[in-house]
Write the structure tokens for this entry.
Amino acid sequence: MIDRYEIQETEETPGIILDKSEGIFEFSGKSLPEDANEFFSGIMNWFREYSNDPNRETIISFKMEYFNSSTARKFVEIFIILEDQTSKGNPVKVKWHFLKNDKMMEERGREFSAVVDIPFEFVEY
């Protein structure tokens, strides 16, 4: 397994840091990839491998400004992989960051939290 997986943020794709040894799991920026399946394929593979030998606890932060519906589906797939991890005794927590007046982004996080059995912490900034 690759210990650290990183993608630099662009205008259309998020910045992503997945670092098992440092315990850093973060998505930030905007996500409007032309082909979400292609963009997220390496990320999904990383999470599948990670779930075979996860950290004792995983805290994953989302600091998204905007994302499209195909990205939302990929986020749900990630949450499902992580949800399976919690059922094996390795707790997961999602920190969902949103700008103070961005009710849409707050609501998107609350929608995700209703779909999966993972605790969400909502962080307004």
Remarks:
- The radius of gyration is 14 Å.
- The helical segments are 36-52, 69-87, 103-115.
- The beta strands are 4-7, 15-19, 24-31, 58-67, 92-98, 120-124.
- The CA atoms of residues 100 and 124 lie 5 Å apart.
